[in-house]
Amino acid sequence: MIVVLKSNPNREQLESLISWLQEKGIIIHTSIGEAHTILGLVGDTSQLDIDLIAALDIVEDVKRVQEPYKNANRKFHPEDTVVKVGNTQIGGGSLTLMAGPCSVESEEQVVAIAKAVKASGATMLRGGAFKPRTSPYSFQGLGATGLEYLKVARQETGLPIVTELMDLSQLPLFKDVDVIQIGARNMQNFDLLKAVGHQDKPVMIKRGMSATYEEWLMSAEYVMAGGNENVILCERGIRTFESYTRNTLDLACIPVLRKLTHLPIIIDPSHATGKSWLVDPLAMGAVATGADGLLIEVHNDPAHALCDGPQSLKPEVFDQVAKKLLKLHDFMKTLEE
Length: 337
Hints:
It contains 10 helices and 14 strands. With 337 residues, it is α/β, with parallel strands linked by helices. The strands form 3 sheets. Strands 7-8-9-10-11-12-13-14 form an 8-stranded parallel barrel, surrounded by 6 helices. Strands 2-3-1-4 form a 4-stranded antiparallel β-sheet. Helix 3 (107-119) runs parallel beside helix 10 (315-336). The chain starts with a strand and ends with a helix. Residues 87-331 form the DAHP synthetase I/KDSA domain.
C-alpha cells in the first residue's frame, strides 16, 4: 500500500499517522519527491482501512500495490534511484561505462587494461576473480589473488571495481570491493541475496537466463528487504530458441523496467551475444533506449584470453566504441530537453 501525502503535511498529524501504522506492525519507507511525499507501507496491510487513512487532512491518495515487490516498485519510489560509487554514480542521467577483462589473469594484465579503459572514458573497472563456468574443467578464476590484483588496479587508476560474488563463504573477501555482482546463475540464490542485503555497498544483479521481469525484481526485493537499497539491475541476455548468438539481448527490458522500478539499469552486450563485433551496435541500441550504463568486456589479447575471448574488445576498439557511446548519450539528452 502507498499513501500519497499532500504538500507540506502537518508534522504532528504525520507523526501520529506513522506511529499508528508502526503499532500495527507496518514497515514504512518514505520517499520524498519534488511534488509529493510517499509513504510505502510494507507488511500485512489487509487490516488497514483505506477510507479511514484517505480521510486524513494530510493524505491526498491511498492505493493498494498488487505487485509482490514493494521496495523495488516505482509506485513506492517515483524518483529514479542514483547509486553512488566513489566519485562516480549510476543513474541520474549519466552514462556509466564499466569495462575490463572477463577474468583477471595477472596483475600486469588487469592494471594495463584498467589504465586503457579509463583513458577511453570508463569510470568503473569490471573483472572476474571467481568465475562460474559451465564446465568444471574450464578456468575458474584466480580467486582471492584475483581480488588483490583488482585492488592494485584500483589503486593505480582510481577506478572503483565491480566483481562477482559466487558463494557465501567468499563474502569476507569482498569487504574492500566497491560493487558486488550477483551473476545470472545466482540470481535466485536467496541466501546469497539476503547476505548482500545486509552489506553497506551496492549490489548489481544480473538477470537469470530464463528469468521474467517479476522474478528479477523479486531478487532485487530480497536485497532491499535486508536494508540495502543500492541495487543495480543488469540485463545480460536471456536464453531463447536462437543459437547463432550466445544469448538474446532483451532491450525491451529498459522501457519496461523504467515503468516498473526506480532502480538503475545496466546492459551487458558482451555476454548477451558472445561475439565482439556485435557489442558495438547493441551497446548503441542500449544507450538509445535509455540504459544507465554498459558492462563491456575488454582484453588486451582476446585470442589468448583464459575466459570469453571471442566476446572481448581490444582496448583500441573499446576506445572507438566508448567515444561513440558517449556522443550518442549526449545527443539523446538533447532530444529530451
